[in-house]
Structures are given as C-alpha cells and as structure tokens.
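Build the 3D complex.
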Amino acid sequence: MRPNNFNFKNGILNVEDMSLNDVLANFSTPFYIYTKASILESCEAYLSNIESTDLVCFAVKANSNLQLLKILAEAGLGFDVVSGGELSRVIKIGADPKKIVFSGVGKTKAELAKAAELEIFSINVESSYELENIIELEKNPRVSFRINPDMSGDTHPYIETGKADCKFGISEVEAISLAKKYSPEEINLVGITAHIGSQITNTDLFLELLEKLKSLASQFEAYGHSIDHLDVGGGLAIDYKMENNFNPSELVKELKANVGNYSLLLEPGRSMVAQAGALITKVIGEKENGDRKFLIVDAAMNDLMRPSLYNARHEIENIIENTEDKESFTVVGPVCETADSFGDEFKLSAKADDHLIIYSSGAYGSSMGSNYNSRLRPAEILIDAGSYKIIRREESFDDLIKLEEI
Ligand SMILES: Cc1ncc(COP(=O)(O)O)c(C=O)c1O
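Done.
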C-alpha cells in the first residue's frame, strides 16, 4: 500500500511531505491541485539560460489562475495574452506592461486601444487590417509581425498553428510587402514572432524557425525598421506518459547561441505548468455495458477537456493503492456526451469513493473548463512548502446563476 502522501512518478509533481488526507477531507472533488515548487523549477529551466534583455512570456491561455500568474511574475516572467480578459488578468496581478505581448488572430479595436494605452512590449500583428487598425489609433505602439512560417509541428491538427492554411499569422511574402509599404515613421515595427504549434517534440523545428525569423529581420531592416527581438513562440512538448520530460534548458541554450544580436523571446505555456498540476476526482461507481467496464468518476470533460477535444491521454492512478487486483477500466465522467471519457484501458483497482489522480493537468485544464451540464467549476489548491491554500474556491450554485435573470 502506498502512503497517503503525494509522491508522484519520477518526482515530477513532488510534494512528498504533504499529507493528502487533510486536503481530501476538506475539499469536495473534483479539484485541481498545483505545486509551487514544480512551477518554480520550470521557470528556472527557462530563465537560467537567458539574459536580462531576453524575455520569457508565459502563455496565459495555459493557466490563467491569478495566484499562479503572480508566482510567475514574481519569478521574473512576462506574459503572452490573447484577449482583453487575459490582459486584464495580468494587469490585475501587477505584471509589468513592458513584459507583455499580445497575440491573437482577432483582436478587437477596443483590445488594441487598451494594449496601446498600456504601452505593452509588443502587439503581435496577425493581419494587414489589424495593422491598419493600430495605425488609426495614432499611438504608435511597439508592434511585431506574427509570421505564418508554413511549418508543421507534427502534432494534433487542432494545435497546429504554423501551416500555410492555418488562420494564424501573416505569410512571409505579405509580411515583407507590409514592411516595405509602411515606413518606420508610420509603424513602430520592432520584432518578428511565430508559433509553430503546441506539444512539439522535435526541438530542431524551433531552430529552423529562428533562422527564418533572422532572415526576415534583415529584410525588414533593409526597409529601415529597427528589429530588436525575435520570438519563437511556445509549443515545447511535455511527456504525458511521465517517463521523460523535454528539458527547456537545452532548447533555450541552443536558441541563445543562434539568435545573433537580437533579444530572444519565448512564449511557453504547457511546458511551464502542465506537470505541476493534477485533477483529483472520486469514483462514483462502476458498471459494465457491452464489453466495457466503466469507472464513473465525478470529474468530467467540462473540468478537463483535453481527452474529449484532442483524444489526449492523461495518466490516471489511485491516490491510495489498495491490495485488490487491478482491472482494465474505461474512465468516464457524468456529462451527457459519449465524448466525456478520459480513455480506455486504465489499469486500476478502484471502487466507489476511492480518489483518483489525473496527472499533467496544470496546463489547458482549468483554463479550458466550462459549466456544461450546469456543473460547478472545481476548486484550485496550491501546495507550497508542505501546506496548502485555496487559490480558487469551488463554485456554488449561486455563482452559477448570478448573471441570469428570470
Ligand atoms: C501564440 C501562442 N504562443 C504560445 C502558445 C503556448 O503554447 P504551449 O502551451 O504549447 O507552450 C500558444 C498556444 O497555442 C500560442 O498560440
């Protein structure tokens, strides 16, 4: 039998001295749990290999909890935001506007005006109309062109963003013609950025991208623009099987060695927080239908959407092992969709009321959550130095309906 301590595989989520009994006793499931130590470790892996002129901007979409953002800001990170809401979140926790980049394929005029007013580090422009909307503001904010690099990340189609026919970015040809069309007096073009996609396992792609950005930079400079930074986006994979992890340090070192005289900017999301978080759920019951043995748990696709949306596989284990033989289960939630499944063939020895842990849920977990089926959003709990604190309380029914009128 395993002790009632978190002692996760390979030390990835390492809170060894933290007894879970307290947490399990005090919170109704499902809930998210994060470890500060693990988040700080990822920060260190990125930050220890850059200089003060470089910037690591956490992709807020991966996890937008205010307390986690605060930890990241205090560790020295900037932020990559993709909406006015995310921009407001990072301003709320006191982030330095000079460390914020604003990406996104459909920024509204109001969002652009807000970013310009805040004088953020860079508005990452994704189309010619967006550039025109920025010029109309007459504020001359710092802008970068987000290039569509026409590269494949060899990842799930829903998280490929760098292929020619994806909606993101501006083609290289169009970017060059915009750099030619608008003089440095008309636009303050200071950077070039691109994001190949997410969950990228081939790190050579980032170096290939960097070469593209460098070549474009010299072409933009030939039209008089002063490019100060190159931004290779985010996308570094994590190992959802939790056997090996990709080490950001090596990648950052190689990028630094090749970036030339430009500042380097990175926008990691998943690789910063995914392994620092888990979703804790309780077994409601078991049943058999056809050839399948189902374990029905109280977490569902509205809490963690990745398995339903991308067919993603998160490791699942009993928190407290029991001595009974393991069986093969399909683990599903209560939501009325067949897609509400965490996957087949999980080897578990669980029964009603047992707690399970769904690993690697710190990124694109709570931030993609919803209230589908009028389910209440779960609590989020942070483990820090052997104690825990609530960083988002669980939703109540009153929270759920407070904006509605009868
Ligand atoms: C522009 C941009 N930057 C950064 C990221 C973060 O990617 P990841 O979480 O894979 O590191 C994304 C994710 O979609 C993105 O679209």
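The two ends are 52 Å apart (CA to CA).
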